[in-house]
């Protein structure tokens, strides 16, 4: 998919951050002289490191919204710093010019971030992950089809309650210790092969998903292909905020599938204090440590 205008602008802002940060880190004395101030080299270098970090984030992330908003926060800090320097500057005209320039850049940053938010809201967030589990497809399907089992390995789910007729009520954890609830319906149910679902109209978080069960190569069990799509309430900003709480969607799903694999193959899951729980045996505990290090495929 080709980059949108907002994504191209975000990359341009990334290169701008790299250039500005390099100047602040490598030549703080020149900037001091331009602004007509002294003894600010350490401060300018710290601001330069901030710019370099933002630049790397903007240039390496496929969804750069978080880093654009980090630039907005940095702009606010820069504006406050320049305003504080003005009374003591030997070149107040230069400081005023810098204030105007930063104010203009702030407007560009805000517009870019808002456009990226709107773009993410329209596209939604998609996650595709796979894992191979050493169990028959029928057994894995039966466990997954009983939706009330899902919170056992999906860390973001508090509860799933089946209501009959293919409908269910889901309660999920959200950032800042909040909860999000919605109702969903099964849209496809092929025993031993595939389950698909979607939220009903009017849900807080419109979403859909599916899981497919197929024989793994080399008679190694069953390969699960999981697809999830949802529309966060605040667009891509919602995902950015979630990342601050350690809840990046792709990584979260990968971790959930690793727990599912371990639960099905070993019959145990780690507790919050690092000790195994579930069906505990001495051999199970030994195997659990090994399975923790096996990646999803």
TrEMBL record:
Superkingdom of origin: Bacteria
InterPro entries the record matches: COQ10_START, ORF3, START-like_dom_sf
Domain called Coenzyme Q-binding protein COQ10 START: residue spans: 133-257
Name of the protein in question: Putative membrane protein
Species of provenance: Deinobacterium chartae
């Amino acid at each position: 998919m080709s980059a949108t205008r907002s994504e191209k602008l975000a990359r341009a802002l990334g290169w701008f951050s790299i250039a500005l940060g390099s100047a602040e880190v490598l030549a703080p004395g020149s900037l001091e002289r331009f602004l007509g101030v002294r003894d600010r080299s350490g401060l300018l270098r710290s601001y330069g490191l901030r710019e370099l970090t933002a630049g790397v984030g903007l240039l390496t992330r496929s969804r750069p919204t978080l880093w654009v908003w980090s630039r907005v926060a940095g702009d606010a800090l820069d504006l406050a710093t320049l305003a504080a320097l003005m009374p003591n500057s030997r070149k107040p005209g230069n400081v005023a010019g810098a204030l105007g320039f930063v104010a203009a850049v702030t407007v560009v940053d805000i517009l870019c971030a808002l456009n990226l938010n709107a773009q993410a809201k329209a596209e939604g967030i998609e996650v595709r992950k796979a894992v191979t589990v050493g169990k028959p497809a029928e057994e894995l399907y039966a466990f997954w089809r009983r939706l009330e089992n899902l919170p056992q390995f999906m860390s973001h789910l508090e509860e799933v309650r089946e209501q009959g007729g293919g409908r269910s009520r889901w309660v999920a954890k959200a950032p800042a210790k909040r909860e999000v609830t919605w109702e969903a319906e099964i849209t496809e149910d092929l025993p031993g092969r595939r389950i698909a679902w979607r939220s009903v109209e009017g849900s807080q978080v419109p979403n859909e998903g599916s899981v497919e069960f197929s024989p793994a190569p080399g008679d190694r069990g069953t390969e699960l292909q999981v697809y999830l799509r949802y529309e966060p309430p605040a667009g891509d900003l919602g995902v950015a905020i979630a990342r601050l709480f350690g809840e990046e969607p792709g990584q979260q799903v990968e971790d959930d599938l690793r727990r599912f694999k371990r639960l099905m193959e070993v019959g145990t899951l780690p507790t919050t204090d690092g000790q195994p729980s579930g069906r505990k045996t001495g051999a199970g505990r030994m195997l659990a440590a090994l399975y923790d290090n096996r990646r999803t495929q």
